User: Which sequence fits this backbone?
């Protein structure tokens, strides 16, 4: 089979980690007889530099016509880059928001798990993580405060601003279904996170999630307040299977969850909609301080490519092959600098890609 | 001097911990020659049971006329208590929101610190907390999503809801000043947390905080995105001095911060406005599961009373005496069950109050 992949290297370490992911994909292609065709697309700071905007119409069109999108990272140093003297909706990150909205990718999946070999990197004490943990944050991605009406204005000589957090039942229902579907393939537990003791959208959220749960009697549903969830992620991350939440809460909690694993350089993410077309990217940022130095960990991007094989192309065996290859390389004690510990073998970005490709 | 304190025992463990705080205050009164007069005020579930609403007009008036308010905790088990079959704005927690707004307490201060004696309870690894940490979350408390216009409605057969996150420059300026004033008495660092890469209120927030900082050249200001802050609290809490943020972000981050200390039963909080009148309460909740069992840790409430002495009554020496007494009792290895570790002496709520009072 032939698959058309729109590839967005983006900024910072983006090009390096994307190069390694393509290396691994090509190896999978050779072994299993698939053809992966890449079309490079500009987004973020590099797009601003080349075209003046963080995402052109044509770039979005190319992404739309592809079978799937693989992204490195976008953005630079806020204090140091000219990109940040532009108005907010013309900055690198705005390109990402436009892409999510343009492709109608309303479901963001971010696995947070403890890699057995990397337990020592976890900031939590051994007693807490003895049993390990493995959960997914399912975040609504095209609604809420991110896309509601907003305005900055002056009234009676006073500067004022507002943002709107809005949801309708359809938006909640479709993401809730994703949450339950994923839980069904895992430990069958959904924890829906909201602030229903204060805001209306959270109360509607809680109600609709409950309604959806009626179609999933095999999946256990619980509700948790967002402030409590921020605590529980530190106290006992092992209690979670699927955390289902709205856009802004999901932004905060999924980043907290990544850090709790201690190995953010290992964490993949997928943004999906109603079609097979998805956007796959590492959970970490563009790390401009180490860009071009062959230091970046390409594993999160490689595992994102594996998610692409699984969710967009239904190539379960191939996805598993990539994941197993990563496990093997870790077992053999190869590490990029971000996950290095005493006695382990330090390798650069390109070598890590080579090693994983070799295991396939 | 005579001080009139409105005391709100509230629900769950509230009455027990308030009893111990009064015990300590009375000892301070005797030693330093002050008279603390208590007027009991109903709020939360007990108020619903007695009056039908979580906070009556009279209760609010009594609080307004007092010199300061000391609160235990409000709320019960959501699944088990009848209070939660009421509409959201009539539930126990709504009383607290009405009190904050009614007393115009726009500044919430929540210290998060590692007690030397309780380091073992911290969920973070020793390497991370070796140097300890001691910071304060300064949270805006009467604006944002908590008090913006909200609505649940039906349109074209679809249920919809929205909440509004609104701020004006005055609201931001007055809380920012609090942040800088507090930093001035501490390590002189303010980290202002927002989501300026996405929402308008955060951009106004960032701008106004920057303007305010001009009046505090001795205080260092940095900005951080809320998702990053949720990570940094786990990765390296020692980097913070004062975290300044809006209402909802503050709700999430201050709870995460409490959990990161590992001893939430020790953490006090103060809600302040433009007058000397403040609301002081422990950071933890009402813990209905252990209510009435003499198990609750009264220290957070006792330390909240100390904050009251300091901020509302300007009794710095007396406040320090309470804090020192708490330290001494910990040094002598007395512990309530929530902070118990091997070899330490277990005591109940009342005994812990006695011990602290004796040290004064
Ligand atoms: C870059 C930014 C706009 C984005 C977000 O807030 O969604 C990022 O933090 C993320 O989580 O993917
Ligand atoms: C009880 C609830 C309304 C309250 C809040 O969200 O402000 C609580 O979580 C807090 O932080 O004091």
Assistant:
């Amino acid at each position: 089979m032939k698959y058309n992949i729109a590839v967005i290297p983006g900024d910072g370490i983006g090009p390096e980690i994307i190069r390694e992911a393509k290396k691994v994909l090509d190896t999978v292609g050779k072994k299993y007889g698939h053809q992966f065709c890449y079309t490079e697309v500009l987004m973020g700071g590099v797009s601003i530099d080349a075209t003046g905007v963080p995402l052109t119409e044509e770039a979005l069109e190319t992404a739309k016509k592809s079978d799937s999108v693989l992204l490195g990272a976008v953005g630079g140093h806020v204090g140091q880059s000219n990109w940040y003297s532009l108005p907010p909706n013309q900055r690198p990150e705005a390109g990402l928001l436009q892409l999510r909205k343009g492709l109608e990718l309303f479901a963001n999946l971010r696995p947070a798990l403890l890699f057995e070999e990397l337990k020592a990197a976890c900031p939590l004490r051994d007693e807490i993580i003895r049993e390990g943990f493995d959960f997914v944050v399912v975040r609504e991605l095209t609604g809420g405060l991110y896309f509601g009406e907003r305005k900055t204005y002056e009234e009676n000589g006073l500067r004022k601003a507002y943002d709107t957090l809005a949801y309708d039942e359809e938006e909640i229902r479709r993401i809730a279904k994703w949450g339950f579907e994923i839980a069904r393939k895992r430990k069958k537990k959904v924890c829906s996170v909201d602030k229903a003791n204060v805001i209306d959208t959270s109360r509607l959220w809680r109600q609709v999630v409950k309604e959806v749960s009626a179609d999933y009697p095999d999946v256990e549903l619980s509700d948790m307040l967002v402030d409590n969830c921020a605590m529980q992620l530190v106290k006992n991350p092992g209690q979670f299977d699927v955390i289902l939440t709205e856009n802004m809460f999901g932004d905060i909690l999924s980043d907290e969850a990544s850090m709790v694993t201690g190995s953010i350089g290992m964490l993949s993410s997928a943004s999906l909609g109603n079609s097979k077309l998805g956007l796959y990217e590492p959970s970490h940022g563009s790390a401009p301080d180490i860009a071009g130095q062959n230091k970046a960990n390409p594993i999160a991007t490689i595992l994102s490519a594996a998610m692409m094989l699984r969710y967009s192309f239904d190539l379960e065996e191939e996805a598993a092959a990539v994941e197993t290859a990563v496990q093997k390389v870790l077992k053999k004690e190869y590490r990029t600098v971000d996950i290095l510990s005493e006695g382990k073998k330090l390798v650069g970005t390109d070598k890590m890609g080579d090693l994983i490709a070799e295991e396939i």
Q: What stands out?
A: Chain A touches chain B through 60 residues (CB under 8 Å). The domain at 1-107+264-360 of chain A is CATH 3.40.718.10 (Isopropylmalate Dehydrogenase). Residues 14-32 of chain A form the longest helix (19 residues). Chain A has a mean pLDDT of 96.
